[in-house]
Amino acid sequence: MSKNFSIIYFKIVGDVLIRDWDIGQIWEILDNLNYINEENVRESRHAMTSFSKRSSLLNREIIYDSLINKKPVSLSKTSHDTFKVIYEHPSRTSQDLYLILQFDEMENILIVTVYTNSIERRVRHHAR
């Protein structure tokens, strides 16, 4: 009988042992995120400033709906615990929604920053 298990990697930074997430683990966390509360998702001050500066394009409802209900179109690792996650913007077809997310050992998420960018940054259109 086989058992499913996940390998957890750690790395030493200075004198501290920290979890080194891989992209597959982050996909799994995002796929299984069914709800958001103050304990499992927090916002950095920078993210809150982004919400207020870009309120016409970004708000908590769009961000949280994307996290819970949408599948990312791209996911890349920027450091041992930080990932750039890109979603299609729900109301602007020419824009993508970028979330920089940090994950702790307990699989809690910190929204580091949020911004939008042209979809062409992700999708290259080639003239034929």
Provide structural commentary:
The chain has one domain: 2-Layer Sandwich (YaeB-like fold), CATH 3.30.2310. 22% of the residues lie in helices and 32% in strands. The strands form 2 sheets. It has a 5-stranded mixed sheet. It has a two-stranded antiparallel sheet with strand order 1-2. It contains 3 helices and 7 strands, in the order ββαβααββββ. The chain is α+β, with helices and mostly antiparallel strands and 128 residues long. The model is unreliable at 1-5 (pLDDT under 50).
Task: Please summarize what this structure is.
With 128 residues, this protein is an alpha+beta fold.
Q: What is the strand arrangement across the widest sheet?
A: 3-7-6-5-4
Cα distance spanning the termini: 53 Å
Overall number of strands: 7
The CATH class is identified as Alpha Beta
Shape: globular
Largest sheet: 5 strands, mixed
Please supply descriptive tags for the structure shown above:
128 residues, alpha+beta, YaeB-like fold, 5-stranded mixed β-sheet, two-stranded antiparallel sheet, 22% helix, globular, disordered N terminus
